[in-house]
Amino acid sequence: MSLLGNILWLIFGGLVTGLGYIVGGIGLCLTVIGIPFGLQSIKLGLAIFTPFGKEVVELGEANSPLRIIFNVIWLLLFGWEIALAHLTSAALLAITIIGIPFALQHIKLIPLSLFPFGRAFRPIRS
């Protein structure tokens, strides 16, 4: 089921969105200061390619002082806008019964878009 969901996701916007995050991340990596944020943007772009069958997990060092500072900077500069876009997309998709699984994937991506430092997107273990 997750393969079919990921294929439909890519066809109906996931590919373009993921590529947008990756291109933005590469742009951020052009500056020395933006490299950590660019890497997180690229990580988000890769997560957007295949959200079905994956979950957001918090790594052991997620609450280190440097990651907290980076998460606060990310939240103020980029995160709230990305999370709002995912929330809006989820609300629009949830209107139809067919769109509900895709809306759930957008909701799943909100925590990663708000605080990407110290979090990863991994396959769900059964």
Automatic annotation (TrEMBL):
The chain crosses the membrane at residues 6-39, 93-117. Keywords: Cell inner membrane, Cell membrane, Membrane, Transmembrane, Transmembrane helix. It holds the Pfam family YccF. InterPro entries: Inner_membrane_protein (IPR052937), UCP028777 (IPR031308), YccF (IPR005185). It comes from the Bacteria. It is a multi-pass membrane protein. Its main location: membrane. It is found in: Cell inner membrane. The keyword Transmembrane helix applies. Residues 4-54, 69-119 form the Inner membrane component domain. This is Inner membrane protein YccF. It comes from Methylocaldum szegediense.
